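User: Here's a chain of 119 residues. Predict its fold as tokens.
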Amino acid sequence: MRIKFMVSKKICYACDLVDNPELIELYKRYHSKDSAWPEITKSIKDSGVIDMEIYLFSNRLFMIMEVDESYTPERKQMMDAANPKVQEWEELMWKFQQAPPGAKDGEKWLQMEQIYKLE
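Assistant: Prediction complete.
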């Protein structure tokens, strides 16, 4: 019997929310376990994301994704563009999210650079 080991890596992203306490609370509710859209969760998993966590400090979001070897940002972007439910979700989220400093037009989640790892 052969055992297949899954290769995974972590990717981190940052995004900002509109600095409005009411909108931030509503954003948090959309992301609660009972409110997350199942189609979005499925889309995330189908793209090769094994695990995802989002943290909030003030109006700054920090996302940690663990992905398998099938995941690439370009593949995820193409899958999202072809999925009407993901497009509906993204349009809704733009009401809460804003591009962080340094983002290009249309960007909101920016990949972060790892600068330290405890070993």
